[in-house]
Design a protein that fits this description.
about 250 residues, alpha/beta, six-stranded mixed beta sheet
């Protein structure tokens, strides 16, 4: 199976602080892959390095067989989109949903905007009635659905998901996760997903990497994590800290 994302020896340095220390990762095409670990372990930094938002000091990142340089071009963002943790911070509150969805289409010079906007809204369960509402008029769950619609509108093959439900109420979390899983299946997308919640990762992902202090601790399947078949004490501690951890 082709690697959608292949990372070798990745180092990210901020003012002499090594945020990532020689990380290797391979995500297969069509796979949903998870990154887990405590805060500051480097999970979100890895996503940012892929998108060009974090400074790569060493190593290589290849997406769909193409090794990335220092900058990301439009072709990269047509293929790779990111959904951020905070739906309140990632959408301009004074713009309509229509304007938020038009923007990426205009940047990329895409003509069939009308059709794409309708499809994206329908796909995330909002429909036409939400199109001319302002982001500040929407609930957290609705905003995150708009953020997902905006990511999907360019028809990418890879979604990077940075704690996409952690800012939402528990009841809304399940709805958004089910929506993401449905979209992935329908569009045959590849997911790379960051979460501190082990139940979410094992529900959404087939394989996962445990991270600590900018390094990969171990790579597991979801069933190995559920069965506590882990080899590192750090992973065991994560499981213990996740009291009542069961697969969703």
């Amino acid at each position: 199976m082709t690697a959608a994302i292949a990372i070798e020896g990745l180092e990210v340095v901020f003012d002499r602080f090594r945020a990532l220390k020689g990380v290797n990762l391979e995500v297969r095409e069509g796979e949903s892959y998870g990154l887990v670990g405590e805060s500051g372990s480097g999970k979100s930094t890895l996503l940012k390095a892929i998108t060009g938002l974090a400074p790569v000091a060493a190593g290589t990142i290849a997406v769909n067989g193409r090794t990335l340089g220092k900058t990301r071009d439009k072709a990269f963002f047509r293929g790779v989109q990111m959904v951020f943790q905070d739906p309140y911070g990632s959408l301009h509150p004074r713009q309509t949903v229509d304007r938020l969805l038009q923007e990426p289409l205009a940047i990329h010079g895409i003509q069939d905007g009308e059709k794409r906007i309708e499809r994206a809204l329908d796909e995330v369960g909002l429909g036409k009635g939400f199109r001319f509402r302002y982001a500040h008029q929407l609930s957290g769950g609705q905003r995150q659905r708009v953020a997902i619609a905006r990511a999907l509108i360019l028809e990418p093959s890879i979604l990077l998901l940075d704690e996409p439900t952690s800012a939402l109420d528990a009841s809304v979390q399940a709805e958004v996760l089910n929506l993401l899983e449905e979209v992935r299946r329908r569009r045959k997308l590849t997911f790379l997903m960051v979460s501190h919640d082990l139940a979410i990762i094992t529900h959404m992902c087939e394989r996962l990497m445990v991270m600590q202090n900018g390094e990969a601790v171990e790579t597991l399947t979801a069933s190995q994590l559920i069965g506590h078949r882990v080899s590192e004490d750090y992973t065991r501690n994560l499981l213990r800290a996740s009291e009542g951890f069961v697969r969703a």
